[in-house]
Amino acid sequence: MLRRSILSAAFRGRATRRPFSIVAPRGASVGKERPSDSQSKKGPDPFSLVADELSLLANRLRSMVATEVPKLASAAEYFFKMGVEGKRFRPTVLLLMSSALNVPIRESIADGVSGGLSNELRSRQQSIAEITEMIHVASLLHDDVLDDADTRRGIGSLNFVMGNKLAVLAGNFLLARACILLASLKNTEVVSLMATAIEHLVTGEKMQMTTTSEQRRSMEYYLQKTYNKTASLVSNSCKAIAVLAGQTSEVSMLAYEYGRNLGVVTAPILFAIEEFPQLREVVDRGFKNPADVDIALGYLGKSCGIERTRELAKEHANRAVLAIEALPASDAEDVLSTRRALIDLTHREGPDDPFLLVADELSLLANRLRSLVVTEVPKLTSAAEYFFKMGVEGKRMCPTVLLLMASALNVPVRESIADGVSSGLSNELRSRQQAIAEITEMIHVASLLHDDVLDDADTRRGIGSLNFVMGNKLAVLAGDFLFSRACISLASLKNTEVVSLMATAIENLVTGEKMQMTTTSEQRRSMEYYLQKTYYKTASLVSNSCKAIAVLAGQTSEVSMLAYEYGRNLGVVTAPILFAIEEFPQLREVVDRGFKNPADVDIALGYLGESCGIERTRELAKEHANRAVLAIEALPESDAEDVQSSRRALINLTHRVLTRTK
């Protein structure tokens, strides 16, 4: 299924975004020549720079799609709800572009534009981000109807849940709201740019629906279709940001070029056709037969298609970088910071995407997990596989970390190899390390099932929780069953140290839940107590699993501890309310009451907004992220590209944790 989706995505032109690293990967550069000053400096996290604005934007979008017709309002806000808003990639780019263009304007300012980044101008540019997001979501709703899709962003697509008619109507409603907001800007050039982007979305979808066999094999046709469906919206929106700021036509075109090259997606299968003309016939059939998928992937593996795709992606990334570097000079740190962040965003495609690096293994792991939880009792099987079904498996963060750690530790082991461990990344060792990823995921899901019973939760991963759907007894039984299957797999590894590590992780999960259930008022206000509880409930499992990966590979105790430290710092979570208490002692009484009264939540949020709690939380999270990075950088040196690539990906994951919204 995954392999078919890869090819399907290639012909649909949907890009995969990648996380961004807190520390520039060693040996990485963007430009064709030596890295410029803007590239060689450590880039800020793009999403963190505009996190507050993204939060405000999300709230405004939810309020803007409200209507007097409840069912239409529910449909229109379907993908603006907390937890399913997506990555908000386009608004991030546009808000960063706004700051990146905050430079003096030499020409006279025309009507409908502003000079300098005043509050009024920033508000107008924020409107462009909101308009763009509404247009984007509207196009997704309509695309899902045309494609008869049943999932989107990990949950049921709107057309699948509420029907095609309401999905089309909701898309039209979002376009209408976008147009109303666009008109309020009173700038005809901006209106023209956004109207062009909408027209291109329609044209791109029409091109996809009416593609001939010859066009399906044409790179030129494919890139034009991809521009219309993907790059046009962000490029024209970037240009609109510049136009509102009163920038020159030259600067506006640089903003456009950045967006255009950022949104380019290529299909490796088209390069493969050049090497294997016999593949044309397979492509012409449109991959309706699963056997054709296997044939195409076979040719793709033999060809240079993927490598040439990467090279072309790098070329477009370089062009995007050059566009940013050609902007008018500025000494303002906020401007320089956002420009570095925009350059960082060009790295989203490529071999160091953590999830793409292990995509095939994750697919195999998902299939094995589904087979591992099969039992002779159908109802128990249905319960145990509830969160392993396609579409609700979650982000699979833990397995991704562990598979990357396995590759990152693929270095020679100097000490003698003990029983139950292997040297070098042999097939046998990789299989055993994959088993750790499977065991970890089963333990994780089992803990979620039990937690939901204890918390009386009714939702999990965008659907009804298992206890809510099938009852507490079956949820507890399913969790116990997963624990037992994890233990059986663990025993098969025949390594007592690994068994001890995973048993410790399970004990810590129980201890953390007990700490949460029995917290006293004094403990609730203690940062030390909170961090210990968080370690038990979150970080212990991934840190001990990372160490188990190292132990199976026969690594030294020092290297094993580095793997452990990476996982421990990756899993740390902090509570801004505890920092706020230090500034506002009167908040202690509110916290002591346990937030059972909704009014206490409002009071606490008021104090939190006035305090430095959120900012201090971010700083502490960055500190732990940096420690995780240092652990990876302290691993034994290796010249192997796959090892270096995996290590860069692990570093990039520290940013994914910093910027995730749920």
UniProtKB/TrEMBL annotation:
Keywords: Isoprene biosynthesis, Magnesium, Metal-binding, Transferase
Cofactor or coenzyme needed: Mg(2+)
Top-level taxon: Eukaryota
Region of interest: Disordered: 24-46
Amino acid composition bias (Basic and acidic residues), ranges on this chain: 31-44
Pfam families, per the entry: polyprenyl_synt
GO cellular component: transferase complex
Gene Ontology molecular function: metal ion binding; prenyltransferase activity
SUPFAM superfamilies associated with the record: Terpenoid synthases
Example GO biological process: ubiquinone biosynthetic process
Family: Belongs to the FPP/GGPP synthase family.
Protein's UniProt name: Solanesyl-diphosphate synthase 1, mitochondrial
